[in-house]
Amino acid sequence: MKRHLNTLFVTTQGAYLAKEGETVVVKVDKEIRLRVPVHTIGGIVCFGQITCSPYLMGYCAEQNVAISFLTEYGRFLAKVQGPVSGNVLLRREQYRRADDEAGSANIARAVLTGKIANCRTVLQRFLRDHQEKSNTDGVSHASKLLSSSLRRIQNENSLDVIRGIEGDVAHTYFSVFDHLITSQKEEFSFLQRNRRPPLDKVNCLLSFLYTLLMHDVRSALEVAGLDPAVGFLHRDRPGRYGLALDMMEEFRPFLADRLALSLVNLSQIQGKGFEEKENSAVLMNDDTRKTVLIAYQNRKQDEIMHPFLDEKVTIGLLFHIQALLLARHLRGDLDTYPPFIWK
Amino acid sequence: MSYSYTEDDLLPLSALQHLLFCERQCALIHIEQAWSENLFTAEGRIMHDRVDTGKHETRHNIRSEFAVPLRSFRLGLAGKADVVEFHRQGNMWHPFPVEFKRGQPKQDNCDRVQLCAQAICLEEMLNVEIDGGALFYGKIRRRQDVVFDLNLRKETEEASKRLHQLIASGITPAPQYSKKCESCSLIEVCLPKTCNRNGSAGRYLTRAMVE
Questions:
Q1: What sign for the dihedral angle of Cα B23, B29, B30, B33?
Q2: pTM above the 0.85 mark?
Q3: CA distance to partner chain B, nearest, from residue A119 (Å)
Q4: How far apart are alpha carbons A244 and A156 in whole angstroms?
Q5: What pLDDT, on a 0 to 100 scale, did the predictor assign at position B155?
Q6: How far is CA B71 from CA A54, B12, B165, in A?
Q7: pLDDT score of A189
Q8: Do the Cβ atoms of A338 and A308 come closer than 8 Å?
Q9: What stretches of chain A adopt beta strand conformation (E)?
Q10: Which of B33, B189, B205 has the CB atom closest to A336's CB atom?
Q11: Fewer CB atoms < 10 Å away: N or C end of chain B?
């Protein structure tokens, strides 16, 4: 397992990435701006007009360093994939399990347990920090609803029912999300989650953070030898990374949502850092995007206690740990998948 | 002479020492294809450095060949020898495998078994008999001679058989935590204290409901 999981984000338009020995060099106008040993990074994410030498791509693939290309706005374009690695027996077990209702329900239940518990913790932390506020009733009611959903799914073996509960949970949680925004209220209001396209600043922020999360989760699954496309809670859909979406569920609330809230509540980003298009789609400007990227990077350096492993790990390492734990469950080492549960 | 294995069956010779260290470690590497940065990139880099030093050299009555490809259909193994020395005796050149190890001599037999497997490969490929070889330990900068006697050969054959059975089963054995786990570079992939298969993850999920 890698100890260094910094992601190299390249946002300078026209930059060229190449391999020199065991390092990646970033050149802008033929001048070397940065040189990093490949073994110290966990991934490379290129935004917009960035090019990359094939030798660097091959070397990164060999070293399990994921390279993704996104548009300047963070929409996924392409990823670099090396020769297929990993354990063919693990993949076959993943597919067999996905075809098996009881086996899928077992994992879907675990994934959803992680999501609900972490959503509930987001709400409870708000309640703990704002005891004096008068409008906390809605949030505390939502938290109770999540608790009862958590109890309901524990013995639920039907995938359809589990998926239905997932929908209810998302609805309950986002219905009170606006309460969690405590400053810059007139600039950042949240009515409901919308994605295609994001129609307000908060949705724009969440979508961008989820894209970063997707890159990290997907590459961690690939490093662990799992197929990110075949999920358990999320049904197969061509072109969709079902398993990556499954594993993102536990990370969304405590990593992405919390980060979005702290960026807004601590006024690290402002309303003027966004622009609205003619069709009411909302986009971030470059400076805001950089601020978000740096905040995400910094968050990944934070140490956190892993409640299942009972040891301190960096948040950046969590993606790899969770992918590994899922692989260990599929290969018979663990009775179910233990999601990361944030208290 | 008929052999038990074909080209398709050959397993990496290096897996023998993993097997002798710990069957689960061997399964994690060769079944689960677990990847551990410190283990492989380091080993790979060291191998590369040596392979790039040249093809062979001759001094006095010793000719050395580097990174020599090996295989044995009897053991069902294939790999590479760091160095094979050919010692001149009269007008004959006798092969003498030498394996480099970064650390110091180990208590167990796993380095000697690996070297013996290399000798058996060479015997089969060159149709000769090889009495001995040497292990070079980087930590003490010293060579230790190894004699390929009947006991060591037997141990090598048995280890090869067990390796083939383990890989064919496709089953990764459950971990058994012991002191040597702390020196294993795969401890973070293996999770010997956590993957104890006693329903721990289920209980962990149940605890999550408690507020």
A1: positive
A2: no
A3: 12
A4: 23
A5: 96
A6: 34, 9, 18
A7: 83
A8: yes
A9: 6-10, 16-20, 23-28, 31-37, 41-47, 51-52, 66-70, 76-80, 274-276, 282-284, 303-306, 311-314
A10: B205
A11: N
